[in-house]
Every structure is written in structure tokens, then in C-alpha cells.
Design brief:
By secondary structure, the protein is of the alpha/beta class. The chain has 13 helices and 13 strands. The strands form three sheets. It has a six-stranded parallel beta sheet, sandwiched between helices. It has a four-stranded parallel beta sheet with strand order 2-1-3-4. Strands 7-13-12 form a three-stranded mixed beta sheet, with helices on both faces. It is elongated, with a radius of gyration of 25 Å.
Length: about 425
């Protein structure tokens, strides 16, 4: 969610309920349906303060159904609210129906203070998140009030499919960007995605990076392929400006892209996230444009939109500087091959190993530090594919299975 100004309510302090209501207002919510409950007071007062119309119903399931009907007719964000436990339980049949019919709604409920958990407090017996998960696409308990804008934006994005004219919006972002980059992930591994991706990159001078989870390399025709996105973290140290537009193409945010540190994806850049799993868009970082789509379908549509009709303002010297930085030698290159303890320096060890690998080979990286050392220079042997076996769960030893599966595929390279 892009930033927005907060408004202090008159005559009382600003609460988490105000932050929630103002976040919804910023996202386009105009009306909410539901039944009052004491735990909802702060939110309902916040809605009144920002002009969100509250429509009272006589049963919680009706509140959910009202939001569902509103969503079908208005094409606007549909919100309902139910109070903790008893109201939530009454609303479950409505949630189940909306889920079954794929109706995009956002249901807000409440709970007693977390300090009263397992304390026989009023309306605190049922774990509402656990109960809601089977009948929702996303269920979450907000523990830190300041996270309301991010989580509400994410929840609505999960509920709703991609916005109309998304390709046109992405094209406009590219046309206005001076320093765009594309970061690819496992979702962009199809031949269609790669083909149109590099046509875009080469035609419009857009550097392409990849997450460490999946990388392809084509040294002859794809000179804008720059290796892992971690290279973007080097830009400030090289006195280079950072990207003003980042397009995530089938790539997940999180630990492999610097989390929320902004080391790789700057806070002040425009962020376009394309993924076939809408629940991942905006999960970690606020996005300016989220597109639920297969990466190949999106790149094909974007290429057709821009081919012969792109009037961009790409900073070509900056692009060249980024290419030079990404292909520069490691700082460990100048260190002695033998450490003070008499052991072979890990950088020089993996450098010698990589030099023995034939071009066009498939490389599978396993382990923690080991995969990091190899990943930084794997591109030197011009592999056709680089895969990091260690994923978000941190499992080690996956490389053997990955290698077996890859070896059984009809690839010309091994």
C-alpha cells in the first residue's frame, strides 16, 4: 500500500481502530456491514470519523452476505464486521458460502486482549484464526497495530484478483522509469517467460536479476542477465543510484530478497509484483501494482503492448554501470589462496571448482555458507541453470534429490 496521511480524530486519542479504518478508507472502502460489539468500538468509531458508512444487520451471516452482494454489484472493496467469538461463530456460515463462491470480501472481527488468553475471558474461548482458515483464503491476527496498513492491504489483495488494465499500468510505470530492473524467480522459469523477458530487456535496456532460488544464463544473447539480485545491494557502496522501479516476475519477497531491510528493493522505488499466487503479492513489502498472472502470459502481453511503441527514458549510462558492477570481480579475488591457518581460502576453492565445470551445465547449490560462496561466482562457467536447493524452511541436503530429478529430465546439459 502506498503511503498516506493519517488524520487525528477530534476530541480523543488516535487508536489502532483509527489506523485500521483509515487504511480501509485509503483502499477505497466506502461501506461496511455488521453488528456492533464492545470489542469493535475503536474500529467503528474510526469508521465514523473517516466517513465509512456503517450498515447494521440483524445477524452476522447476513452481514457477510450483504458484503458479498455488495462486492458482486459494485466492484468495490466489500467489508463486513462481526464481534469476537459469538459473533464470529454466527458469521462462519456466511464466510463458508463466500469462500465456496469465490466472492471477494474482507471480514473484520475482534478479540479480548492477548494478555487474557486462556483466562476464561469474555468472548475469548475460540481460536478464530484456526477456525477461519478452512473457509478463507487468508486469516490473520494483528498483534502489532502499526502493521494494520500492510496486512489489510495484503488481505484485500488476496481477496481480489488482479486489477483491470494491469498490463497498461505496468507499461506506464516502465515508460516513466529511468532506472528499472526486473527480478525473476521460480515463477518465470517457463520458456515463454524467458523468451519475451529477454526481448523486453534487450530492446529497452532493462537489467535482469534473479533470486537465488532459480536462475538461467544465456551469455550470447542475454547480456543484460546480471546474476543474483543481491548485487543490487552493492549499488550504494559503488556510489550508484538505486532502482526507481523494480518488477518482481514470479519472484517471492522475503529472506532471499532482503526481507524488509530495503537492502535489495529500495523503500522509495515503485514496486510491481507479478505472480500466479495472489496471496504472495504484498505479503512482505507494499506494492504499487500487483498482478495475478502467470509470468509467461504477462511478459508476452507486455511485449506486445510495448513492441514498437515504447517511449522510455532509461538512463543508459546507469544501466551500463550496473552491468559492470554485477560482473566485477569479487573482493575476495585479491586475498591469498591460503589462509593464515594453512587452509585453502573458500573463495579460491570454489573458483577452481567452478572453472572445471563445462559451459551449459546445470548447477545445484546446497548448504548454507557453501551455497553462498558458489552462488556468487557460478555464472563464470556460463551454466544453463543454477538452482539453490535450500529454501525458506532452511532444509539442507535437498541438493541430492534436486540433482536426481534434474538428471532424469530430457536436458541436453547436465
Amino acid at each position: 500500500m502506498p503511503g498516506f496521511s493519517l488524520h487525528q480524530p477530534r476530541g480523543r486519542e488516535f487508536t489502532g481502530g483509527d489506523l485500521l479504518a483509515q487504511s480501509l478508507k485509503h483502499l477505497g472502502v466506502e461501506v461496511a456491514f455488521g453488528l456492533h460489539g464492545g470489542h469493535l468500538d475503536a474500529f467503528l468509531m474510526g469508521c465514523e470519523a473517516v466517513g465509512i458508512r456503517l450498515v447494521d444487520t440483524r445477524h452476522e451471516t447476513v452481514a457477510v452476505q450483504a458484503a458479498e452482494g455488495y462486492a458482486r454489484m459494485s466492484n468495490k472493496p466489500a467489508v463486513c464486521f462481526v464481534t469476537a467469538n459469538s459473533g464470529f461463530s454466527n458469521g462462519l456460515p456466511g464466510l463458508a458460502t463466500a469462500y465456496g463462491d469465490r466472492s471477494p470480501i474482507l471480514c473484520i472481527t475482534s478479540s479480548p486482549p492477548t494478555r487474557d488468553t486462556e483466562n476464561n475471558s469474555l468472548q475469548g474461548s475460540i481460536d478464530q484464526v484456526v477456525a477461519a482458515r478452512p473457509v478463507t483464503k487468508f486469516a490473520h491476527r494483528v498483534i502489532a497495530p502499526e502493521e494494520c496498513p500492510r496486512l489489510v492491504s495484503h488481505a484485500l489483495r488476496v481477496a481480489y484478483s488482479g486489477a483491470p488494465e494491469a498490463v497498461e499500468a505496468a507499461a506506464n510505470f516502465l515508460a516513466n522509469a529511468k532506472r528499472p530492473v526486473i527480478i525473476t524467480g521460480t515463477g518465470s522459469r517457463s520458456p515463454l517467460a524467458r523468451g519475451d523477458l529477454f526481448k523486453l530487456a534487450e530492446s529497452f535496456n532493462i537489467p535482469v536479476f534473479n533470486t537465488s532460488k532459480f536462475a538461467t544464463y544465456n551469455p550470447k544473447s542475454n547480456m543484460l542477465a546480471n546474476g543474483t539480485a543481491g548485487s543490487l545491494a552493492k549499488l550504494p557502496f559503488a556510489q550508484l543510484a538505486r532502482p526507481d522501479l523494480v518488477v518482481l516476475l514470479g519472484a517471492r519477497t522475503g529472506m532471499f530478497l532482503g526481507g524488509r531491510s530495503s537492502a535489495i528493493i529500495p523503500e522509495d522505488c515503485r514496486l510491481v509484483h507479478v505472480d500466479c499466487d495472489g496471496s504472495d503479492i504484498g505479503r512482505t513489502l507494499p506494492v504499487d501494482l500487483g498482478i495475478v498472472s502467470d509470468a509467461g502470459t504477462f511478459t508476452s502481453a507486455l511485449w506486445k503492448r510495448l513492441e514498437g511503441n515504447f517511449q522510455g527514458q532509461i538512463d543508459v549510462p546507469w544501466v551500463q554501470a550496473v552491468l559492470n558492477l554485477a560482473s566485477s570481480e569479487s573482493p575476495f579475488e585479491k586475498e591469498p589462496e591460503e589462509t593464515t591457518s594453512g587452509s585453502l581460502h573458500p573463495y579460491h576453492a570454489v573458483k577452481n571448482l567452478v572453472s572445471a565445470i563445462k559451459p551449459g551445465s546445470i548447477i545445484v547449490l546446497d548448504g548454507g555458507e557453501a551455497s553462498a560462496w558458489v552462488g556468487d561466482i557460478a555464472w563464470k562457467c556460463q551454466p544453463s541453470l543454477v538452482i539453490t536447493a535450500t529454501g525458506y524452511l532452511g532444509f539442507l541436503g535437498n541438493g541430492f534429490g534436486y540433482s536426481s530429478g534434474l538428471q532424469s529430465q530430457p536436458h541436453s546439459a547436465r
